[in-house]
Amino acid sequence: MQDSKKISALVSCFNGSKYLSEFLENCAQQTISNKTEIVLVHNEPSKEELETVKSFQKQYPGLINHIVVPKEPWDVSVNRAIKASQGKYVCIWNVDDLRVPDSLERMAETLDANPKVGFTYGDYIIVRKWQSQTGRLVVALEFEKNKFRQGMYLGPFFMWRKSLCGSIGLWDEQLRTGGDFDFAVRLAIVAEGKKTLGNLGFYLDEGLGLSTGRTPWQAIERTVIELRYGVYHKLDFWYYNRAKKYRILKILNGGVWYPLAKFVPSYKSFAENCFYILYAVFRYPFWLLRRVLNKINKSF
User: By its UniProt entry, which Pfam families does this protein fall under (predicted)?
Assistant: First the structure.
C-alpha cells in the first residue's frame, strides 16, 4: 500500500464472481476512497476473479490490499483482514452489499467528531435483487448500552476504531454465522456507540449468504451468544442443547482459546444475574407448552 489509510474496509470473498466487479467499482466511488483501503481476503479465487482484481488494482492504485488464501471460515478471514489493515477505523463490507457514495465518509466523520465514541452504525435498505435500491428501510435505533447488549442492532455496515480490538479482542472463530453479532455485543458492552444519520447502503438478502441463508446455524449461534451474555429472556430453548456444545465462555482466535473475561471483564454481571436466570426458568414451561400446541395445530 502507498500511504497510510484512514479507513480499512474488511472484505472476505469466496465464489463472488457475480458481485465482484460492481462491488469494487462501488468501493472506488466512495467519496473518501483516497483515504480508504479495501482489505480483500480472497478465498480460492477463480481466474476470472483474479483478473477482475488485477484490473482494478491497475485502475485504482493503492485501493485494494489483495490477500489470497485457501478456503477458510468467514470469521478467520475477517480476523486476517483486521490484522492486515492499517486504517484508524475499520468496517465490515460484504461483497454482495453496496454502499451509498458517502457512506464511509459520513461514518468516519461521526467518529472524528466524537472522540469518546468507539463505533458507529446507521440505517440501511434490505433489497432482494443484486444492485437494486428498492426495498425495506431499516431505521437503526439510537444507541442504548443495555439494549444493544441484547441484540444485533448495528446492522451490516458498522464501523469501529481499530484500537478497540486491543481490549475487546477479535472475532470468535468458533462461530460460523454469529461472529458479527458477538463482536457487536462486545462493542456495546465495552464502548460507546453513536448512530450516523441517513441511509448507509443496500443489504442484499437472497437467502444465500452466511447470515441470510435458511439454516439452523443462525438460531443455534444466536442462542450461544444469548447464553454468553445472559440474554436469557430471548432464549429459544429448542436450540439450547446444541448451543451448549460450543465453548460459550471462550473466544477462539488463531487456534488459541481465550477466556471471555479477558475481553469482557463484566460479563458475569449479565450471565450470572439471578433475576435473568429465574426469569428463564419461569419462562421455560410456557415456552414448552407453546411448542406442543404449535405442533398439535400443524398436525391437523
Answer: Glycos_transf_2
Q: How confident is the model at residue 4 (pLDDT cuts 50, 70, 90)?
A: confident
Same domain for 256 and 151, yes or no, is no
Predicted TM-score (pTM) of this structure: 0.88
In a domain? residue 2 = no
Count of domains forming the chain: 2
Measured in degrees and rounded to the nearest 5, phi and psi for residue 181 equal: -60, -50
In DSSP notation, 174-200 reads T-SS-HHHHHHHHHHHHS-EEEEEEEE
Burial class (CB in 10 A: 0-12, 13-18, 19+), 41: buried
CB atoms < 10 A from the CB of 220, how many? 22
In a domain, 180, yes or no: yes
Task: For residue 132, count other CB atoms closer than 10 A to its CB.
Answer: 12
Q: What is the mean pLDDT of the chain?
A: 91
- 190 plus 222 within the same structural domain: no
